[in-house]
Amino acid sequence: MKQLKRLPEFIRFVMVGVFATALHYGIYFLLQKFINVNIAYTLGYVLSFIANFYLTAYFTFGKKPSWSKAFGFGGAHLFNYLLHIGLLNTFLWLGLSKAIAPIPVFAIAIPVNFLLVRFVFKRKG
């Protein structure tokens, strides 16, 4: 029963995540043709991070953004970014193309990110 109460929240998280992931991938895809893939990936991540923070606060969890939430969100995303960049380079090393390599990264990192971000927004303070 408790999981059913979380379903709308999870659906909103997925919607925000799809938008942020599409934004991240779109920026990466455009820039990776012109600059280093790690820089392109990082720029996409940072820009999608900003949009993601505000959408997650207001839309997903119905909370007003605060500095403590921003720092917690930033900490969760720092871990998530390191996971992303490590996986991206692993998949590139394994031979996936620059255009395709982010896709399995997203499949692995997004569920981890949900757990971290949910903890940040659901804790007291």
TrEMBL record:
Keywords: Membrane, Transmembrane, Transmembrane helix. InterPro entries: EmrE-like, GtrA_CellWall_Glycosyl, GtrA_DPMS_TM. Belongs to the GtrA family. It is a multi-pass membrane protein. Its main location: membrane. This is GtrA-like protein. Residues 12-120 form the GtrA/DPMS transmembrane domain. It comes from the Bacteria. It comes from Bacteroides clarus YIT 12056. SUPFAM superfamilies: Multidrug resistance efflux transporter EmrE. The chain crosses the membrane at residues 12-31, 43-61, 73-94, 100-121. Pfam families: GtrA_DPMS_TM. It is found in: Membrane. The lineage of its organism: Bacteria, Pseudomonadati, Bacteroidota, Bacteroidia, Bacteroidales.
